[in-house]
Amino acid sequence: MNTVFPRVQTGPISEVVPGSLIKIQRSEGLLTSLVTSHVGKTGNRSFVTLNAKIVGRPRIFFAEDWSTPNCLSFANKLHFELNVFDGISVDGRGYKWEDEPGVILASKSKLFLRAAPENAFYGTFRYLDVETGDVLADVPPPYWSCGAWKISIRDELTCKSVCLFEFDITTANAN
Fold first, then answer.
1. How far is CA 94 from CA 16, 100, 147, in A?
2. Which end of the chain has fewer CB within 10 Å, C or N?
3. pTM (2 d.p.)
């Protein structure tokens, strides 16, 4: 039997494991997103967009209850890599970038991605547990913040890694 890398599948978001990376085709373009365990009022699964280019919205935001009938998901296990080595991309007090979406917060043994609300006037930040896909309204202090990270998948057969998404707070608003 042949092997394929990356392992992809198509179908509704409701069938995707929370915490998985997906691609969604929208009129604004192809969105790269992380699926959450949150289910909205109309039964649609929520997700966090990572690369939105929608006028009036931040690049990384919590898309609650969007109707998205079909997506492309990656079956390979995700690998989050945090840049905590350069002294520029990490803050041990958690104050740096305290109002910036896209920052990953480390609290005890958990990592949370801060997502902006879909509508800044009515909403508040949401925090996605990057391992489980669970969504929290707040992260318990104390925490460290990390402003540069990437998501990769690894081919177990060839031991090759492919970067699927990369974030750096210093260039996040340039796009």
1. 32, 11, 10
2. N
3. 0.90
